[in-house]
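Fold it.
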Amino acid sequence: MFVQYLKSDLNNSFDKEQLNELKEEIEKAEPISTEFIKVYERVNPITNTNGILFDEIKENYYRDCPCLNAARLSFIKGKNRLTGNELVLAWKLEKEFTQKQCLSFYVEKHNFLYNNIGINQASEYYFNKKLAELNFDQMATLTLMIKNAVLYNPKRKPEGIKQKIAELKN
């Protein structure tokens, strides 16, 4: 019952003005290409926040929730420790947006190292191409960088990325 309250509109643990600003930013985010989403889902299968919670109970951490990532990236902090956390914010975002909309926002704001904020800058910096021009390996590299930009940095660890992409292809 408490969880349903946290998910509901009755729970106003977030500043409404900040929440509305975040929602506007998500709405404005440039939709990500279908090809990139396919690669992303192959690397990080997409679920919702409830799916993440269920996976953690089963100790299966292989799925990703873009709305939860967007909540973690946001500047909004809740009014108290119990009702103002990332999961509650993600639930609120999921009521209004799809996971793909949250993903578009998230990759637009993600830090890909070397002052590259957003997937379009990262695509240009690492591959000298627009996102739509990238092949599977390049899109997979950016997807892996979303997971861990330092570990999967193509400038510093190209062999590790090649090995991980080979695993993905198999």
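Residues 16-28 form the longest helix (13 residues).
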